């Protein structure tokens, strides 16, 4: 598996984990967990985008 594909996969995983954390924080009214989830979602989006950009430069 190419590094760019790994970055995209890991980025999507971080997005999903962040979404779950954010929802769990929202349901339990835990503001800290909600913020951690948002941060992890953003991190995942950045990593996924970096993987896409890297894939385009490989061609």
From TrEMBL:
Biased composition (Basic and acidic residues): 1-24
Gene3D superfamilies for the chain: YjbJ
Domain (CsbD-like) ranges: 7-57
Residues of the signal peptide: none
Pfam families cross-referenced by the UniProt entry: CsbD
Start and end residues of each stretch annotated as Disordered: 1-59
InterPro entries (UniProt xref): CsbD, YjbJ_sf
UniProt similarity note: Belongs to the UPF0337 (CsbD) family.
Name of this protein: CsbD family protein
């Amino acid at each position: 598996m190419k590094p760019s594909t790994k970055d995209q996969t890991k980025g999507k995983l971080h997005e999903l984990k962040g979404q779950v954390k954010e929802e769990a924080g929202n349901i339990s009214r835990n503001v800290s967990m909600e913020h951690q989830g948002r941060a992890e979602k953003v991190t995942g989006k950045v990593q996924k985008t970096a993987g896409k950009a890297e894939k385009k430069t490989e061609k």
